[in-house]
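Memo to structure team: turn this sequence into structure tokens by end of day. - J.P.
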Amino acid sequence: MPNSQKTKSLAHRKALFATFEEGSDADIRESLAGLHPADIADVLEAIPPELRRQIWQQVDHAIMGEILLEMPQAVRSDLIQELDDEAIIVATQALDTDEVADLIPHLSDDVISRILFAMDSRARESLDRVLSYPEDTAGGLMNVDAVTIRDDISLEVVLRYLRKQGDLPEYTNKLFVVDRAERLVGSLLVRRLLTTDPDKKVNEIMEPEAIKFSAMDSDKDVAAAFEKYNLITAPVLNEDSQVIGRITVDDVVDVIRDEADHSIMAPAGLKEDEDIFAPVARSTRNRAVWLGVNLITAVLASWVISLFEQTIQQIVALAVLMPIVASMGGNAGTQTVTLVIRGIALGTIDESNARKVLRSEFLIGIMNSVIWAVVIGVVALLWFGNPMLGLVIGMAMTINLVIAALSGVIIPLFTKRLGIDPALASGVALTTVTDVIGFFVFLGLATLLLI
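Reply from structure team:
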């Protein structure tokens, strides 16, 4: 969030705090009425649950749906629990089909039935179509409000048709052109429609639709295409190449934001929708498993150290220097694993070029290891006056940095092949490898060469 937006959000929060402490419910409602739903969502996410619930009760039911969509899932679920069935139904009435589909998983069966009953048959059919696809696919992301036109009609007919509709769906910068079998054959930019002789036919000025998605395409692939080709909207097709919906840039922004949150939270074993003000018991439970995994890896590293207890007792300097070897290996590996995970996410690294990436990182690991092995060897010599100790730590540094570079490539590719999220598993696996190998090599060499 840009600094200006952070400042704005903080100002909204302070104003609401002041109104809540000194004003009436009517004053709170008046303060909320002047805010955009996204701003209200930011404020609610950033305040403790007890205050969050009290302010939530003063929100206009008509915009509650929009506010819920702007919130992390954990906060959204808690606030939905505060609403009665009637409020939920009112909140969903102003939402598009794809937005209602986002809220459905958090609602009870009874509320879902009532929402569906309140819809007309066309809206109900559209919602069923979106819900039939997994949430992380183009079909689950799409809205069914795509505007299609025939390729053999004049622009004047198109203009009359649009005027009859009275309005266009949001983010409509193009109309999708179909043939008599409803198959996609191209697209007509709205700007060309408005600036071209209305007597011309659609097929005379339409353009091929270069970017289109099947319903089962991954939402990550969709987001990558929108980013690469600067798209505003794109069609979603069924197996017969018929338009069944469209994806718009606002939905893709949500996917990109979720991916960014995931890349930050996953290495720490946290969910991207973690609520900072969640109940202590719930947060403790969510974090305990990952801390347990890290404890196991730490115990493994400590066990390796214990194998060389007598060596450390004889040469105390080893206890001073051995964290340097593990730390440098961990940092070097983190650089590599971060680049590889990003490459996997963007699709620039896969099995076809993995060997070249591995070779490149191997060479980088060798170069860095030689440079820093010489540096730490000289430091150890000057510090402890022992040339052999400098040689031992230099050799250990070289081996561990090369292993770290190789592990930074192999681990995320291997976890991806196993179907495990590389962002979640790679960090702890890499730390284990660099710690265990770093300690083992350093203390093992010391035992062989110094004792």
